[in-house]
Specification:
Length: about 450
């Protein structure tokens, strides 16, 4: 069977008991998790299927609504003021401003260690590259580092973490005109660590405050790290570390370092693997479990049955094809990066259900010659009706019990707009609610 075409059920598959639910969500990223949460909290029996680890662990942990307009204007102060002016094809226009607010309210209710929910205004958060990113929600651990704060900053890098050059990041921030003085220093992390030690290893040592050996003496890790930073501290009132200050007890780690140094301590969002992203992922999966949803990870969805309605999907597990049935389905498998949208020499397509993806037949029209140009491929994805049901090439509804959410959707450039998280949350919330309502 080719993906995107209905399955022909074998006698073996027919003998396997189907796993049933009201709502079946395919995809374990931010859109899929939000969709499953919204449906479960609406009273539906929900099952979530995720083949791979969530992409959240590769993200910064910052949650954007809209940082820039499609024309590149920004950074935006209030993203909600701009949403009504976006192109009609944009997913935010499909769901509407108030739904975006409601969806972000669900996020705030579930992820209590994030900040920004008190205001519509974007916060400006310094990143490990020395840029300032407009974002709607940010981890509590980043609060003391906001660029709107005028207190001077000392950035601390680690010799073993080459992806965070603190002096260079400080220079970039200064060149960007931040309203505070900023310096960067590089130190060695206390204790004997391999040069290729995982970032989670550092976080674990700080979580447990294990003793580390320093000049033949065993000293608690937090105290030792603070002492090494203190020798570089001048008049700065804030110190920023790479985001590795504990996996399970980050607030306690920050408090201990702050007490030792006598200044506020914050985390600088990093690239993958991202500890803030892992923390966020764990919080969302825990909330979904608490809501009573069933979760299965590690096995791919490889086919489906149905024409106007999806009757069942098949999950490949240990060589067997396990049928899963539901009243309503949500497609949240990601975009071009997550392979929820794919392309070949024949065109661009959604591989699981064969949903239509609008694109030019001329492949040279998919991109601009300027590397930083307005590339059409960045907006490739599934088009939907007002309730997020995918549309066929003739404009009709592809399946009346399927909805799409997140970066599998077309009509927006999440990377340029800094809107990926917000679109995932808003469309996931909408898809989950519609699915739950129609499954009753």
């Amino acid at each position: 069977m080719t993906l995107g075409t209905p399955n022909t059920q074998s006698s073996t598959e027919a003998s396997i008991m189907a796993i049933e639910s009201d709502v079946l969500v395919i995809g374990g990223g931010l859109a899929g998790l939000t969709s499953a949460l919204a449906a479960a909290r609406s009273g539906a029996d929900v099952r979530l299927l995720s083949y791979k680890q969530s992409t959240l662990r590769n993200a910064s942990g910052l949650v954007d609504v809209l940082g820039y307009t499609p024309d590149g204007e920004g950074p935006l102060s209030n993203p909600y003021d701009v949403i009504p002016t976006l192109p009609e094809t944009h997913p935010y226009r499909t769901v509407g401003v108030e739904t975006v607010r409601e969806a972000m309210g669900l996020f705030d209710d579930v992820v209590t260690f994030y900040r920004g929910g008190h205001t519509d205004t974007n916060a400006l958060v310094p990143t490990h590259g020395g840029t300032v990113k407009p974002t709607a929600r940010y981890p509590e651990g980043a609060s003391a580092g906001l660029a709107s704060d005028t207190r001077d900053v000392l950035l601390v890098g680690l010799e073993s973490m080459t992806d965070f050059d603190a002096p260079r990041a400080a220079a970039h921030l200064e060149a960007a005109g931040v309203p505070f003085g900023v310096r960067g220093v590089t130190i060695s992390f206390p204790g004997a660590f391999r040069a290729d030690a995982k970032v989670t290893r550092y976080a674990h040592v700080l979580d447990t405050d294990d003793d580390v050996s320093v000049r033949g003496r065993d000293v608690p890790a937090r105290e030792t790290l603070a002492r090494r930073v203190a020798s570089h501290l001048e008049d700065e009132k804030r110190v920023g570390f790479p985001a590795l200050l504990g996996m399970d007890h980050p607030a306690a780690v920050r408090a201990a370092l702050s007490d030792e140094l006598g200044v506020d301590v914050f985390e600088v969002p990093m690239g993958p693997p991202s500890i803030p992203g892992i923390r966020l992922e764990e919080a969302l999966f825990a909330a979904l479990s608490d809501a009573g949803a069933s979760i299965e990870t590690g096995n791919p969805v490889v086919g489906y049955e149905g024409t106007e309605r999806i009757e069942r999907v098949f999950v490949e597990k240990n060589g067997a094809r396990i049928p899963n049935t539901a009243e309503q389905y949500v497609l949240a498998t990601g975009g071009l990066v997550g392979k929820g949208v794919q392309s070949n020499r024949e065109g661009v397509y959604e591989p699981l259900f064969g949903c239509h993806v609008a694109h030019s037949a001329n492949r040279y029209d998919w991109f601009e010659r300027d590397a930083f140009g307005d590339h059409p491929f960045a907006r490739f994805g599934v088009n939907t009706d007002d309730s997020l049901r995918p549309l066929a090439s003739d404009g009709s509804t592809a399946f009346n019990n399927l909805r799409a959410a997140g970066s599998v959707l077309g009509g927006y450039d999440f990377a340029a707009e800094k809107s990926g998280s917000g679109v995932s949350i808003a469309t996931g919330y909408t898809a989950g609610q519609h699915a739950a309502q129609e499954a009753r």
